[in-house]
Every structure is written in C-alpha cells, then in structure tokens.
Amino acid sequence: MDLQTLTYIIVGTTFALYIGIAIWAKASTTGEFYVAGKGVHPVANGMATAADWMSAASFISMAGLIAFNGYGASVFLMGWTGGYVLLALLLAPYLRKFGKFTVPEFIGERYYSQTARIVAVVCLILASITYVIGQMKGIGVAFSRFLETDYDTGLYIGMGIVFIYAVLGGMKGITYTQIAQYCVLIFAYTVPAVFISLNITGNPIPQLGIISSMADNGTYMMDKLNMVVAELGFNEYTTQVLGSKLNMFAYTLSLMIGTAGLPHVIIRFFTVPKVRDARASAGWALLFIAILYTTAPAVGSMARLNLMNTIQTGQVGDPAGNLEYDKAPAWFKNWEKTGLLKFEDKNGDGRIQYYNDKNKDFAAKAESYGWKGNEMVKVDRDIMVLANPEIASLPNWVIALVVAGGLAAALSTAAGLLLAISSSISHDMLKGVFVKDISEKNELLAGRIAMAGAIGLAGYFGLHPPDFAAGTVAIAFGLAASSIFPALMMGIFNKNVNRTGAVWGMIAGIGVTLLYVFQHKGIMFIPGTDFLGDMSANWFMGISPNAFGAVGAIINFTVALTVSKMTAAPPEHIQHLVEDIRVPKGAGTATDH
User: Any residues with CB less than 8 A from the CB of 167 and at least 6 apart, and which?
Assistant: First the structure.
C-alpha cells in the first residue's frame, strides 16, 4: 500500500478515536470542564500529563535540536524533565490541597487581590499563546508533507479536531483523549527508533545503541558521528555547547522552572481525588516521559548520522573528482516540496555539498577545491523526526505511524494550553472578577465560547507567527519561569510576601523578559544553528533571549521580596492559610512563628 493511503488510514483512525472519546466523555458541569470532576486515577493522570507535556516540541523538535546541537541540546533533556521533579516536590501536592480550579485563582486568593489574579491571567495567556504557536507549526508541517495538503489547510484540519474534543469534553474529554494520544505518540516514537538502532548498531534498544559500535565496523557510533561532522567543518558532536556554559546553565534553569510554572501542566494536578495522588501523578508522568526522553538522544544522533551519510556526496580533499557521486535521494526531493528543505547547486556540479561555511578556515580550504559555499541553504530542524524513517528507508507503515504520533503530540498539548487559556478567561476573569453571580450553566457555556475563541487565536498565530516567537517555544518557558513560578513558590513557602510584592514581582519579571526578547529578536538564537559567531556580543552576560527567563525569575523574586518588606504584611488569616497549605492535616497547629 502506498504511503499516502496508509497515512490517511492511520491518521484518520486516530482522529476518529479522539472524537469518539470526546463524545463519550462530554463535560456536563464546570467541575468536569475545568478539572474532570477531580476523579482521575493517578496512573491515568500521569499518562495524560505526559501527553499534555510531550508536545510537538518534544516529539518533533527536540530530536532535531539534538541532531544539530549534540551535547549542547542536553539542556532540553535536563530542563524539561527536571521541572517535573520541582513540580512533584514543591508545587503539585500543595496546589492540589488548596483545591481550586486554576493557577490564577490560587494566586488571587493567596495574595488576596483581584489585581494579582488579573496579572496572573495575562502572564498565563502570554506564555500559553507563545507555546501553542509551536504546536500549530507541528500540525502544519506534518500535514503539508504526508497528507499532501498545504500548510494552511493542515492547520485548519488540526484546529477542527481540537475544537471538537476540547470544546465538547473540556478537561474530562481532554484527559481521556490525551491517554489515547500518549499511547499513539510513544508507540510512534519508539518503533522507528528500534528499527534505526538495529540498522546502524545491531542493538534493538536505542538507549544502548547510542553507546554501541557500528554494525558494519567496530567503530563506536558516537566516534563515527564526531568524525563525520568534524570533517565537514562542524563542531564535534559530543562537545558542542549552546553559546557559553553560563548560557547553558541559564537555559537549563529557565526550562526547568518554566516547566514547573506552565499552567496547562499544573492544572492537571487539580484533577486527582487526593493530595497524595497529585505527587503520585507527577511520579508516573516522569516515568512515562522518560520513555521518550531517554530515546530522544539516540533518535537525534542517528538522524544526524543518516542525514550526513545520505546527502553528503562530496569530500574535501578530492579535487580531481575521482569519486562516484549520487544525486539527491528520493526522500530529499519529497521534503524539498514542503519548502522546509532547500538545496542550491552553487557550483553547478549536480552534487550536494553540505558543510559549515561559517567555519572560515574550513570554507577557505573547501573553496580551493571548487566549492562555492554550503549548498544546503535550508534545513528545518523540525523535519528530522518525521523524515528520519524515510532517510533510513523504513517501511511505509512506520512512516505513517510517526506522522500520527507527531500529530497526537501537537494536538494533546494544544488542547491543554487552550483549556488553560479558556478557563482563565471564563473562570478567573468572567466569574472571578466581572460576573461573580453567573450560573454554572452560563459559566460552562462561557468556557466553551472562550475555548473556541482561543482556538481561533491560536490558529491565527499559527498562520502568522510573530517574529519573537517564530524561533522556539523556549520563549514560552521563559515567560512562565519569570512570572508564574516565583509567584507560586513564594505563595506556598513565604507567608510574608504580600499582594503588592506579588503583583510588582510578576510585572517586573515578565516585563524584563519580554523587553529582552524583543530587543534581541533581530539576533535571536535559534537552537539548532550550527555556528553562533558574534551573535552573543550584545547579550547580557552571554545569555540568549531563550534562556533569559531565569534572569527574569531572579528579578521577580527580588522585587516581590523587597516590595513586601517595604509595605504592609499580609493579613493574619492569609498567613495561616499559607501554613495550612504546607502542613499536613493533624501535624500541628498553625502559629504566627
């Protein structure tokens, strides 16, 4: 059966499954719409959380970043998984004990301020919209290549599917849909990884294949990859860093605390029956996430090796042209049609020469052999996972499965983000501030209308992404890290932080981060670029805009604590509330000390 037919069958089957679950799990109350009635089992919630979290960035983009950044891309593995440790230890159980529906609701009540609640809503929407742009791109990329539609049409189809199961089912429908999506995406990610690991190393376990020797010779796979990329002027794969070591640290920290502060992740821990279930859910989520995240380094490194071996048809040091050269392979021509891969034959020899022409010494050497610049003028990193099975000549059903997995990852996270946005509008802004006496029926209707509006807004930005967010969804983590995470941490662990401090801390943190991002959008560091050159010359202490959320968080903490010391202390009942959140029931009486 041909690839397109198989893809339609597999993707169509998964879409029918998602819609069927949404109809079965239709939300009939606001509790079911916002938090699935607080009755989700910890294991099921852990699986849904994993799907909610493992977005197009994890499924599609992360292996591409690893493929082109090598060791430097470890910031994503450490930051995104480390954030769940923070969630499990510092946030999830306490927020579940507080027992509300949304993050802004907690911030509003903890800081006894409608202003704080509104500021939290604004921060939530900014971070979520920025993040959802990446999901929209993932949907469009998958459709444009494998279903032979244009990018816009693919995006509209994805929006329609999300609209059906998110608007109809709310959190209840999204939860059970995400469980199905996790099964689809993890199967789709690991099956081709096993095939490719077997082909390259003879080891069926990708996590072990990456440290094994090549199947056709005794060279270790990573040594072979280092040699291949170094010969072409790129940095050695296992020693690359993202900018400076300080930037790598800031990047990791920003992703870590950004993960712990993303509202669509936090809201999942409001759906379990008990406080201890929230901690258990975080543990299960980390386990389910680890299956993909421990596979990603193997997928990325093997994809880079396959890419180089497939298209690199020239060799420096052979000016006589005695070697046999192949033309562009079939998979390459297929991806060229999408516009995400582009080859320009600069010297007219009919061959593809892919090397790092930003490396001046190597470029001069290459030009002496008649090369006139890197001919791979565009390689979108987001194609690597989707193209990997084709590059490795795997069966069509495996390629179609990967497409379904990529769409499942993008749709699951998009739904979670959109629910966080819609609930902040209907529950926090409408019911919490403007129409406090609204009936449950009308609030549920408002939630669905807000969800539809959020889908429309996300679709618009997917079609017309703003400059500052087009590079990477890491910006979204920086916005969450600089605004929401500090407010939650101080709200739980420092009873002396007052409403004035919290409001100005959030404004200062996200304001400085946004200012830095916009100021440097012209020299935005996009992870996956092969050469930084002098790009970091104007960065503060060499910290890229993508990593600046860590600095914004420090500013948030500093401003909030300083302003709180200079203004009136929180009321006594708020201080007792903070202590009651942290101390288990029956462990002792809250005091003023």
Answer: 448, 451, 452, 455
How many other C-beta atoms are found inside a 10 Å radius of the C-beta of residue 388? 28
Would residue 466 be called left, alpha or beta, if left means φ above 0 and alpha means ψ between -120 and 50 degrees? beta
Give the type of residue at 522.
G
CA distance 104 to 106: 5
**Locus of tokens 């509202």:** 263
pTM recorded for the entire structure: 0.81
Give the integer Cα–Cα distance in Å for 526 and 380.
11
**The residue type at 445:** L
3-state secondary structure of 527: strand
- What is the C-alpha separation between 202 and 519, in angstroms, rounded? 49
- For residues 31 and 49, give the distance between their C-alpha atoms in angstroms, rounded to a whole number: 18
CA dihedral 117, 119, 121, 123 (to 10 degrees): -140
Residue type, position 67, single letter: A
Cα separation, 341 vs 499, in Å, equals 51
Give 212's contacts (C-beta < 8 A, 6+ positions apart).
201, 202, 203, 220, 221
The alpha carbon of residue 70 and the mean position of all alpha carbons in its chain are separated, in whole angstroms, by 18
Per-residue pLDDT of the chain (593 residues; tens, 9 = 90+): 777 788 888 888 888 888 888 788 777 777 777 766 777 888 998 898 888 877 777 787 788 888 888 888 888 888 888 888 888 788 888 888 887 768 888 899 999 999 999 999 999 888 888 788 777 777 776 676 666 777 778 788 878 877 877 777 777 778 888 888 888 889 888 998 998 898 888 889 998 888 888 877 778 888 888 888 887 778 788 887 777 888 889 989 998 998 888 888 888 877 888 878 878 888 888 889 889 889 989 998 888 888 887 775 544 444 444 444 456 677 787 777 777 778 777 777 667 777 776 767 776 766 666 667 777 777 777 778 878 888 888 888 888 888 888 888 877 778 788 888 888 888 778 887 787 888 878 888 888 888 888 888 878 877 776 544 334 567 788 889 999 999 999 999 999 999 999 999 999 999 999 898 888 754 444 444 443 444 555 778 888 888 899 999 999 999 999 999 999 999 999 998 888 887 655 444 444 44
Under DSSP, is residue 529 helix (H, G, I), strand (E, B) or coil? Answer: strand
Superfamily of domain 3-304+388-582: Sodium/glucose cotransporter (1.20.1730.10)
- What's the CA dihedral at 383, 384, 387, 391 to 10 degrees? 150
Beta strand segments in 365-488, E: 376-379
